[in-house]
Amino acid sequence: RLDENGDPVEGGDSMTVNRLTLLMKQKVNNFDVGGAVQKIKGEIGITTKSIAKQKYGPNVVITKEMMSKVEDEYLNSEKGKGFLDNKIKQITANPMNVNTMIINAGMQTDKGEDYQCGSQEDYDNWMEENDNDEANNPFLVLEFGKDNQYHANFNETQMTKAEEYVKNQIRGAVDYEKTE
Q1: Bridge partner residues of 2 (DSSP)
Q2: Run of H or E including 81
Q3: I need a labelling partner for 14 at 20 to 30 A (CA). Which of 7, 141, 163, 174 fits?
């Protein structure tokens, strides 16, 4: 294969029809954080309902207030925090899902700049122009690899924001109400 100047094309700059087909089938921007959170909410509901039955008796009619109290106690217990941390890790394990979530949620840096997809070069240029302020770099590195697939990479601040977002989504979905 030759480029327009007659020079050989190196790997990653061209691809076979089979590789192009694989790329077209790669799922990008298809992560449903709401659906994932609803599944987790269901798991929390099963666990807390069991705890409520143990606490109040097997034949008790569990009121919303009782359930809210049990959910709150569970999510603030060591076991509940461990469950929550595990679910956050599961959701954020796939970099493409994290990328989709950050973009679709309209997340911003602490300086109010919207996150956006960019190349490693965009990321590095921004760092150079902004005194290496990595915590506020708005570029989520999304590049096309030599394997003809997209790959996403994040800095520590970006990943922490994604994890906090997931945690807030899960806690918000549980719908527990504090009663006095």
Answers
A1: 8
A2: helix 78-91
A3: 141
